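Hello,

Our lab assistant flagged a job as stuck in the queue for most of the afternoon. It eventually completed. Since we weren't sure the result was trustworthy after the delay, we are filing this so someone can double-check. Below is the sequence as submitted and the structure that was eventually returned. Let us know if re-running is recommended.
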Amino acid sequence: MATSAMLADFETNLLPAERCILQHSRCGTQCKLSSKLPSEPAPDIKVRAEFIRFLIMGGDASTHVHEFGLDIKGAWIVGDINLSGCVAERRLFLDCCHLEDGLTFIDACLKTIFIEGCYLARIRGQRSTLESFAVRFGSTVAEAVRLSNITTTGFLSFRDAILHAPHVDPSVLRVSLALETASIGGDLFLNCCAHGHLALEGCHVAKDLILSGGKFYPPPSNDHLYDKVGFAVDLSRIVVGGTLWLAPNVKVCKDPARIFGDLDLRNAKVGGLADCRESLPRYELPEQQEVRPRVWLDGFKFEHLVGEKATDFAVRSAWLEQQPASADGVDFRPQPFEESVAALRRSSHFEAARCIGELQQKRAYHFYMAQRPALRPLIVLLMWAHWWILGFGYRLHRLVCAMAFMWLAFALIYASQRHHFVPVSPAVLLNEKFEGCREKWITCTALSSEYERFNALIYSGDVMLPFVPLAHGKNWMPSWQSWWLRGLVFLQGILGWACGLYVVALVTGAIRRA
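-- returned structure --
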């Protein structure tokens, strides 16, 4: 595509390196000016940024630039390659180049830009559209990379790059990479070394977001900057169609992500989550190890967990325990626990899901105790009863065992006190035929031939499970003189009803949903 610039504007004072680039641009081959990143602007490697822009835009009628685009290695580029507002059909490949003033392509529509092993002062490309964009393999950006609202149809990569935050006014948050509300049509590779705030708030990634092998440092302390103090990585409100990789990724990097500050995942939504204990945010210095950075998980949703480590209870609980306290000092937030339980169940890791559910209930009871200190003894009693008998609603076998124990224990008591039981039927009690049985109804031979014999096991089961029609409790009852035994029967009936309702609630899932 022709521009207002003409080759004649450059021909009178073309630099040696520019003549080489012009020659190679006609056949689409690489122009190799140096084999490594230059440390000083030697005359034979200097290139003007305006000349590169002229060729990327297609040159003029007298200049044929190959459809492949520009491929330059070892150049010292003077000035800023400014493509802002441009629509270019040529690709740009820079290898081991030094860009004095960086690269700018704000509001531009470009093809692919690959930058490998280069040094750049800065990169600015807000609201631009590209096929793919990569700054990787040892490339260093001295100031912030600002790509807010960028759109790519392919991948966006900062693999093995080194990003620095600008030295600005302390009242301004220092950002090393700004990708807010960006739309990435492929994978997003952020396995880089970022010295400063990594801002991806509201970013959409069609495939995987890979932080494996990256190192992320927070900006210097800015205590007066709202709630972003110490934030190394901000992934709030991101949407990832694939997997968020924090654990080692065998295809990209065998090391986990290292986050040396706070991690924000509030209201983020990802297809899969691959993490491990090693990727849990922590501070770098040994003397800071006692204090853990904060991990914000409110509203964070993920469909499934990837890898064996991600489904381990110790890993999931470690992430959940690192959530910060709220403004009132209470650090219990149920949604992250429920999300972990649901994802573990979908991954068929039911035991880990039960353990996380139990951890959630423990935190809930501690929350209730903090809110109602006057009721602390009662809440502690309920918590331990809920744990030992029901496993906080996740251990049905405990309730079954407790019911069996209660059935046998009460049956032994009834058997030892069987002489205190009398028939319920008035016709039997008032019948003169059984006058001799009134002292010991249970062992009376005259009664046993016409009336159901007392059985302590059946009687205990009938009292404990009143909804099971055994009818034994309708035939026998403790005598009125044995008031304590009648109270014991009443207590067993209450406990039986409570256990029965719990069984129904557990089977239907009502307790876990609550």
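-- support follow-up --
The delay was a queue issue, not a problem with the job. The result is valid. Residues 222-229 have pLDDT under 50 and may be disordered. The chain is about 30% helix and 20% strand.
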